[in-house]
Design a protein that fits this description.
29% helix; 2 domains; 284 residues; binds N-(5'-phosphopyridoxyl)-D-alanine; D-amino Acid Aminotransferase, Chain A, domain 2; 7 helices; D-amino Acid Aminotransferase, Chain A, domain 1; nine-stranded mixed sheet; six-stranded antiparallel sheet; alpha+beta
Length: 284
């Protein structure tokens, strides 16, 4: 089946969908993106995703090429043009096309592309036995709240993880606080409380992160957003979240077991709550 993409006003077969080589996304990674899940035609938190895209654009002085309402309509349109049930929609906005120069030409029109893929499912093995990870000193840039397409550090981190036979690399700040993964947010259970790094310039405000915190609070768990370390006393579980993985327990980091080395009750409960919410969305 040929997938249909959207590029600057046109719907095209994916193989014919191209961007000019002088697009600043290509030359400078001068752009931002979103990855949105769609279950049976219903989008997960579409508006918050588009608002986060707008935040990313605003922070780097790109005007969204259309209104959020028009973009919402475009997302629905591209979904309908592709015959996928559960899908992952990718939106990318770049500053646009101009002869290569660091200086920004203010007359440039931003580029907008949308593509779609089938939504991946996490392997049963990862759900049953938990994922594994390494830690790396954070060598990304200082504005990780902006969902920038400049993902070289994340690509390198993920590649190090894969080459060491684990699933994810978690970034540590200079003091050793656990921030997030290359493409995931990170949580711990410490003395029974659900802990995650607060929203600041060091982490992305994940859509799944938000859902998990909401579900945890609704289940009367104590949620604390504070800097934390993997070697804190009382740590019993870790878990990671993203649009593409929902929530996965993380049972081994840097070769050391977290808690008893198996998925724990909090990860199990929260994953179930998240899956219930996703199932309800699919059946809307
Ligand atoms: N990445 N942190 C980082 C650095 C990420 O790249 C992502 C998502 C997340 C989780 O955000 P969300 O819950 O909104 O998916 C956290 C996407 C999926 C990607 O780059 O493919």
């Amino acid at each position: 089946m040929q997938l249909i993409a959207y590029v600057n006003g046109n719907f095209l077969p994916l193989d014919e969908a191209t961007i000019h080589i002088e697009d600043r996304g290509f030359q400078f990674a001068d752009g931002v993106y979103e990855v949105i899940a769609c279950l049976g035609g219903n989008f997960l938190d579409l508006r918050p995703h588009l608002e986060r895209l707008n935040h990313s654009c605003r922070e780097i002085d790109i005007d969204l090429p259309c209104s959020i309402v028009d973009l919402e309509a475009l997302v629905h349109q591209i979904y309908l043009k592709n015959q996928l049930d559960d899908a992952m929609i990718y939106i990318q906005v770049t500053r646009g096309r101009a002869p290569r120069s660091h200086v920004i030409d203010p007359s440039m029109q931003p580029s907008l592309i949308l593509t779609l893929r089938a939504l991946p499912e996490p392997s049963d093995e990862k759900v049953e036995h938990g994922a594994t990870a390494i830690t790396l000193r954070d060598f990304r840039w200082g504005r990780c709240d902006i969902k920038s397409i400049a993902l070289l550090a994340s690509v390198m981190g993920k590649q190090q993880a894969v080459s060491r036979g684990v699933d994810e690399a978690f970034w540590l700040d200079d003091e050793g606080h656990a921030l997030e993964g290359c493409a995931t947010n990170l949580f711990a259970v410490i003395d029974g409380q659900l802990i995650t790094h607060p929203l600041d310039h060091h982490v992305l405000g994940g859509i799944m992160r938000e859902m998990i915190l909401r579900q945890a609070k609704a289940s009367d768990m104590t949620v604390v957003e504070r800097p934390w370390k993997l070697n804190e006393a009382g740590i019993s579980e870790c878990m990671m979240s993203s649009t593409t993985n929902a929530l996965l327990p993380v049972c081994q980091i840097d070769g050391k077991a977290i808690g008893n080395g198996s998925p724990g009750p909090v990860a199990h409960q929260l994953r179930q709550l998240v899956l219930n919410e996703l199932e309800a969305l699919r059946n809307q």
